[in-house]
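[#protein-structures] MJ: dropping Integral membrane protein here for a structure pass
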Amino acid sequence: MNPPADSPLFVAEEVLCAYPISTLYDSCPRYLFYALLLATCVTRWTGWLADVFLGAAATYAGTAAIQAFILVSSPPKHPPPSPITIPHVPDNTTLWSAFPALITNTTHLDLIPAALELDADAVLAIVVTAYLTFLPLQCWSRAFSHNRARYLLYTLWHILMLAGSISALIYWPTLADSPSQYTFCFPDLPPTNTVSSDGWDPSQRPSSSPSAWNSSIWTIFTNATAFDQLDAICFYPCFNTSQPLRQQSSLEASVASGDNRLPQRHQFWSEVVYSKRYIYSLIVLTAIINSTLLLFKILPYRSRLPSARVLTIWAQRSNILAGFKRDFRSAIRISHSNSNPNSNTTATATHPFTPKPHNTTILQTTRNHLSTWHPSSSLFTLHAIGSWMRLLLDTIILCALLFSIVVSPLTVVAFVVWIEYYIHRDGPSQETPRQVGQWEPLVAVGFLVLSAGVLKMKYWVASGEELDEEIRGLRERLVV
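AK: finished. structure tokens for Integral membrane protein:
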């Protein structure tokens, strides 16, 4: 195909090459996951129902955590830039209407084929939300904190979510470092908004040298036979990339105009309170408090707080406050008594080896010297340190619980709103809620709840023989 005489041979336009969010992490399954976590908090007093909701949410989040491990272990490796020579297009060209992201006023480009993995946004949303929800659950739910087997399983899930969150937070910033991508088209054949890859033809890049891209592009637009072999009306070098866990044909390229342009995708929220630094700080603080509360239950330390549950602390708030006051007064009294030198002075005056009058000056100098260091050194006695440390640890635990009650739920909501904004800017969902891939998880959770409810009613529907057999077996196990 030959362009008009007053038009360039071909033009370059910036595109956004990305693997769209997988169906597993699309909008409906993701919102169902949030609903399951909320249902777990609401039904925490039931035990069995909360186990069903949390089990469904944990398996979903566990899959996302495993994908986070795979993504961070295989980061994208970009080849060195390849210099590309393109025809010069002036800024006042009439091609802007057909090519909104047209490259103008230059004859050289640096080409680095690459593609974005948009699953990173969804994986980050899932694993971090699951981890942040762990903190209010362990403070509000008695079922999770007083059943040792359940609490052990819950702690393992917490460790998995923490590792997944760290992996996702490490991989996620690499999306912003992805190099700009370009497509090359005839001036009279503009590309469509979104083009899917049909796989890469190795003949379109005969060698792996950096100059091969330039020669391949010019060959395509100067040879009609080479152009006819393209699967699309434009040439997309980014289709020559791959990503773990993805089919190459699922890669899509869209014109990088408006909100699709990468530098503008993260512009709005960086100007408001829910910035990356704010969210990251809350996640780090939540991780510290999670670890503190876990150690509070694992270490053999008998705190002034009777429990890590909010309701128990609120019911005994008067006793707890009175205990804090007693601990504080006791620590002050011990430090004051140790720093008071009167007892030592009296003992010296009545001691049988009291110095003679001619040594009075030396004795007074010694006493003055002791009075300058004795009060400060008494603060470091074992008894005083133990009193102050007990008061400090109880205060830290109480502050951690207050954070869990007030700030932690707001942190979960803030993070979900923040990350869903990013996901919304990634583009529309691949499937609508009508497709089976979207409503299938909801049906699976429904059947799981129904099955758990039937098993919960086993003693109401069981026959007398079954109950007698179970009682007999229980007695035999107790005897053994």
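MJ: nice. The first strand starts at residue 11 and ends at 19.
AK: one more thing. The chain is about 60% helix and 5% strand.
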